[in-house]
Design brief:
globular; 8 strands; binds S-adenosylmethionine
């Protein structure tokens, strides 16, 4: 997601500190304290401008959400929306996560969402894909028993790679579609910013939900 330069981005991010966590690694094992309840916690990795997690948080007040974004200027857009929404059950975190176990304790999460993750098309960059086995094993550690991962992408090659990785690790696939918006598919009502653009262009959107 390419962004225009934003002036004083750090100061502007600081103005939204109520909705964000500065040092996510320090929160490992203690995330429930910032929500002040024992509700299940879900995390979106690479949340972009935040539309998806904000909608989920609004729809499910009995669940907590952590939306993670690496790019500060993109996160700023998400925080502007969070300030309007004023939801108590969502926090944002700025980090380019390489290993989720640095941020979350074993079984701390109930699920992870990956939406339109960067495809990293070159073979030599395969380990950077958020559905590479290296990442999947981390998700399996931090997600509690019977927790889920949901992945949506317009990128057919990335999707096929991801399915191979899921199967190679014997994770159980619960739902699967190569074209969620042109089928009677249940999990399509909450969209992301990228998804809205691809949907408009009638590009098929792939989806898989699996247990790690
Ligand atoms: C293609 S955009 C999709 C954004 C959003 N999920 C959507 O569907 O509209 C991917 C986003 O993921 C972020 N990202 C990629 N890898 C990440 C990582 N390892 N940790 C945090 N954010 C990441 C990028 O900065 C970018 O904003």
């Amino acid at each position: 997601m390419r962004q225009r330069k934003v002036k004083n981005v750090e100061a502007r991010l600081a103005a939204f500190s109520e909705f964000s966590v500065v040092d996510g690694k320090k929160m490992k094992g203690n995330w429930k304290n910032i929500f002040d309840n024992d509700n299940d916690i879900y995390m979106e990795l690479g949340c972009g401008k935040g539309q998806f997690s904000l909608k989920l948080a609004e729809m499910h007040p009995d669940r907590n959400y952590i939306a993670v974004e690496g790019q500060d200027t993109v996160l700023l857009r998400a925080l502007e929306k969070a300030a309007i929404a004023q939801l108590p059950n969502i926090k944002f975190m700025q980090a380019f996560v390489q290993d989720v176990t640095e941020y979350f304790e074993e079984d701390e999460l109930a699920g992870i969402y990956l939406n339109f993750s960067d495809p990293w098309p070159k073979d030599r960059h395969a380990k950077r894909r958020l559905t590479h086995t290296k990442f999947l094993k981390g998700y399996a550690t931090v997600i509690k028993n019977s927790g889920i991962v949901e992945f949506k992408t317009d990128n057919d090659a990335l999707f096929e790679f991801s399915i191979r990785e899921i199967k190679a690790n014997d994770y159980e696939i619960l739902e699967y579609s190569r074209d969620i918006h042109n089928s009677a598919f249940p999990s399509k009502e909450i969209t992301t910013e990228y998804e809205d653009k691809f949907k408009e262009a009638n590009k098929n959107i792939n989806y898989v939900k699996f247990v790690v």
